[in-house]
């Protein structure tokens, strides 16, 4: 049994992608994956897509470090919407007054910038196309496909610090996106599983996107998924840089910089503060 104290938290969202944020800089709460899964339950817990844990940095020049846990308790390396909520939390709680900070994540350093219009910019780094680094296992030289219900769908593997598969569709309606997503996530070709993005091109500067996220399922928005979709769309000339990505929770802007890195721009909102009662979450053992 893991015994823990009451834990203060903030509930936040970025374009409908919702998070619980916990400051662990001066504490060590040691939540287990089963406890995280219970807290993520929207009927019996707080309910969230992901949990963000703020810690002291271990590398310069980072001012803070944060870790990301999916609703199923698994830890992941990158989350663009979470990064914006994390920065908004720091400013709201007066942990930082800077308009730009460098942050340590599991996938490396990222730079966050607070804009005059209240939006937050995230430098998501340079996208990775190398199959070994994504990781994606394939012996074919042609564009990979997934077959579901006797229909084949081409997809583009890419990493934004976490693995993505981008599928272009004529319409996001009338297709079982969840079924396709589950098939790809269970595929041996993605040993670390994968976030599956479904893209519809609206015009040269606008995409519509739905993402079936690993560990969370369908969400209202996925920041790294929007980056992956935007990069693929620009590279394949489906769209032109910069591109607006329409998600169920709002609009995200993707800009591919001259240096090759990806800038994600979007909002972050505080919902409420609360406190986790130890008795509510100490009933699970790892």
From TrEMBL:
Catalytic activity: (2S,6S)-2,6-diaminopimelate = meso-2,6-diaminopimelate
Transmembrane portions of the chain: none
Chief localisation class: cytoplasm
Site entry (Could be important to modulate the pK values of the two catalytic cysteine residues), positions: 164, 213
SUPFAM superfamilies: Diaminopimelate epimerase-like
Pathway assigned in UniProt: Amino-acid biosynthesis; L-lysine biosynthesis via DAP pathway; DL-2,6-diaminopimelate from LL-2,6-diaminopimelate: step 1/1
Class of this enzyme: isomerase
Entry's localization field: Cytoplasm
One Gene Ontology term from the biological process aspect of the record: lysine biosynthetic process via diaminopimelate
Keywords recorded for this protein, A-Z: Amino-acid biosynthesis, Cytoplasm, Isomerase, Lysine biosynthesis
Listed GO MF terms: diaminopimelate epimerase activity
Source domain of life: Bacteria
Listed EC numbers: 5.1.1.7
The keyword Lyase belongs to this UniProt entry's keyword annotation: no
Active site: residue positions: 79, 222
Residues binding substrate: 17, 50, 70, 80-81, 162, 195, 213-214, 223-224
Protein family according to the UniProt entry: Belongs to the diaminopimelate epimerase family.
HAMAP family: DAP_epimerase (MF_00197)
Cited function: Catalyzes the stereoinversion of LL-2,6-diaminopimelate (L,L-DAP) to meso-diaminopimelate (meso-DAP), a precursor of L-lysine and an essential component of the bacterial peptidoglycan.
Name of the protein in its database record: Diaminopimelate epimerase
Gene: dapF
């Amino acid at each position: 049994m893991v015994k823990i104290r009451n834990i203060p938290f903030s509930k936040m969202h970025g374009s409908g992608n919702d998070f619980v944020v916990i400051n662990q800089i001066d504490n060590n709460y040691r939540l287990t994956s089963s406890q995280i899964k219970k807290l993520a339950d929207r009927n019996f817990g707080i309910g969230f897509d992901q949990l963000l844990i703020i810690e002291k940095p271990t590398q310069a020049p980072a001012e803070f470090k944060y870790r990301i846990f999916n609703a199923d308790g698994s830890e992941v390396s990158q989350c663009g919407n979470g990064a914006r909520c994390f920065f908004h939390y720091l400013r709201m709680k007066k942990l930082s007054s800077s308009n730009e900070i460098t942050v340590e994540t599991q996938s490396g350093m990222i730079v966050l910038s607070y804009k005059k219009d209240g939006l937050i910019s995230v430098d998501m780094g340079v996208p990775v196309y190398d199959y070994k680094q994504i990781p994606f296992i394939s012996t074919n030289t042609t564009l990979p496909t997934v077959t579901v219900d006797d229909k084949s769908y081409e997809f583009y593997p890419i990493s934004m610090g976490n693995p993505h598969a981008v599928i272009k569709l004529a319409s996001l309606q009338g297709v079982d996106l969840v079924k396709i997503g589950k098939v790809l996530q269970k595929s041996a070709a993605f040993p670390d599983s994968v976030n599956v993005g479904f893209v519809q091109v609206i015009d040269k500067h606008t995409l519509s996107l739905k993402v079936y996220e690993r560990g969370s399922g369908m969400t209202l928005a996925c920041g790294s998924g929007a980056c992956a979709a935007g990069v693929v769309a620009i590279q394949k000339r489906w769209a032109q840089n910069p591109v607006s990505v329409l998600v169920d929770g709002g609009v995200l802007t993707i800009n591919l910089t001259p240096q090759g890195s990806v800038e994600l721009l979007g909002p972050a909102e505080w919902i409420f503060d609360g406190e986790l009662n130890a008795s509510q979450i100490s009933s699970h053992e790892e």
